[in-house]
Amino acid sequence: MSDVVLRAHAVGKRFGGFTALSGIDLEVRAGERLGLIGPNGSGKSTFTNCLAGAFPSHDGSFTFKDAPLAGLKPHQRARQGLARTFQLPRPFRGLTVAENVRVPLSFGGRGAATMESAMACLESVDLAGKAHRMPKELTQVELRRLELARATALQPELLIVDEAMAGLSHTEVDQILALLFRLNEGGTTIIMIEHVMRAVTEFSQRLAVLVAGRKIADGPPADVLALPAVEEAYLGR
Amino acid sequence: MSDAIIPALPRPAPPRRLGHAGFWLAAAAAAAILILALRGMGSEYAYFAATFVLQYVVLATAWNILGGYAGYVNFGAAAFFAAGAYTTVAVGKAFGLGLLPCIGIAAMVGGALGLGTGILTLRLRGAYFAIATLCLSVVLQTFIVNWSYVGGSRGAYILRPRDVPFGFDSYGGYLCAVVLVLAAAAIAIARSIEVSRLGLGLAALRDDEAAAEAAGVPTLRLKLIATSISGAMMAVAGAPLPYLGSYIEPTSAFGLSYAVNAIAMPLIGGTASWAGPLIGAVLLSSLQQAATVTISSAANLLIVGVVLVVFVCVAPRGIIGLFRRRR
């Protein structure tokens, strides 16, 4: 197996007459921390949904761990080690925090679905103390941590973190960043989709920029952010 | 799990549940006590009333597997119930089989009908799914009305066998015992699902289907399993119906009261637990039976409607929800 864990080739997605993604090529190496940025409506979440299988892509292909993802449903992709979090936390509101984590443990097929495993996942995101609470009792940052716990319970090779910092305070952003660094040190490749530039520049080894459904830049964060096209996309002319 | 491994929790762990074997034994004991009590009363009406209530326990429990655990509201409960009843009529007439084999065949017919309905409709959600299941009831009723072999719109008479099996004092007593066993089995099945991996997956997809898929849950497969089990059990609930009244016709078999009660009973009892449909069915069907005897049978749906509105306002999570602080 090559060290490229994910390869997107000429990915395109249309909604009726609107082209949300066009010709996206992207490679992510194993263990890498990639930041995917772009203004609102640039196609970041659409790219995530196509990659996770929630939307079918119209053009191009994804290859994950050297195997094509075409035709696989979201749960099959999750079982292969491709996990995601959602832009707005989507806990299972009728289940306790521990039961929320038991869902991917039970169905992910990548680990034991015991209470001990669930507690270990919750400990990794500092939520073990709230294992028997309901999601409605959690704060916003705790809900983000629960999202991460649920995703990591799949023991993914690739984790896509979709705007996990949105609406969080400076300290809370640091907490989530520390968690993500810890996961990455454990070997998980991470794609971070984010608007909080401090977080994305601090975290990412490489940045890819989407604008109006096209990739306009890809490289080291300092070089990418210095590009006039990127500056123009964010700040206008 | 020891405190040495996991940090102390601020709240105590949930109480231990009764094990599967213990639950089955408790259900069997409760069933035996009820049968002995009814036999002690020696009244045919007591048997009839108990059978009526227990039939709704099976129907409400069955509905709740799809409607409560998976969150897919099925307005076509009457279709599955009537499918079970007419399976008894058709199979009984064609092969001369007794009640027990007819119940088994009704389960298969209901399961197949549930699976077919699931394949056709489970890509729909919410009101669209509910309307689709309502259509199933209309289609099936039209089919039965035009099927003269099972009596068509005239209906069909079913004669109870003269020989009462297994030493029961009357066929009503036997029928009641059979439906009691079905109710105990339905509750045990629902409870097993609730504490199983299937139940966890259904709870996840009920709350958020996309998030469940992202967590590795094969949502479509679980929904098909739920529609099949629920359909089979609803048909089983309807299978003894022709023997209960000795006459069956499409308008009553596909009656609105079955569809409404199947939904109202779990909602009133609480949909999150196997105990909810049991409580709702016993409460509401007893009330309806009492109203039929003391006021009029026409008051039944009025009572259901009033009780349902009260519970939706006062206890949206049902009676069980009132006693559960956390959920």
Automatic annotation (TrEMBL), chain A:
- ABC transporter domain mapped to chain residues: 6-237
Q: Which GO terms describe its molecular function?
A: ATP binding
Keyword Nucleotide-binding listed? The answer is yes
Keyword tags: ATP-binding, Nucleotide-binding, Transport
State the source organism's domain of life. Answer: Bacteria
Q: Is DNA damage set as a keyword in this record?
A: no
Q: Which CDD domains did the record assign?
A: ABC_Mj1267_LivG_branched
Q: Please give the PANTHER family that the UniProt record associates with this protein.
A: CONSERVED COMPONENT OF ABC TRANSPORTER FOR NATURAL AMINO ACIDS-RELATED, HIGH-AFFINITY BRANCHED-CHAIN AMINO ACID TRANSPORT ATP-BINDING PROTEIN
Name this protein carries in UniProt = ABC transporter ATP-binding protein
Q: From what organism does this protein derive?
A: Teichococcus aerophilus
UniProtKB/TrEMBL annotation, chain B:
Q: Which UniProt keywords apply?
A: Cell membrane, Membrane, Transmembrane, Transmembrane helix
Q: Which InterPro entries match?
A: ABC_transp_permease, LivM-like
- Please list every transmembrane segment annotated in the UniProt record, as residue ranges: 20-38, 45-66, 72-92, 99-122, 128-150, 171-190, 224-244, 256-279, 299-323
Q: How does it sit in the membrane?
A: Multi-pass membrane protein
Reading the lineage from the top rank, the first entry is: Bacteria
Cellular compartment(s): Cell membrane
Task: Fetch the Pfam families from UniProt.
Answer: BPD_transp_2
Q: What is this protein called?
A: Branched-chain amino acid ABC transporter permease
From which source organism is this entry? Teichococcus aerophilus
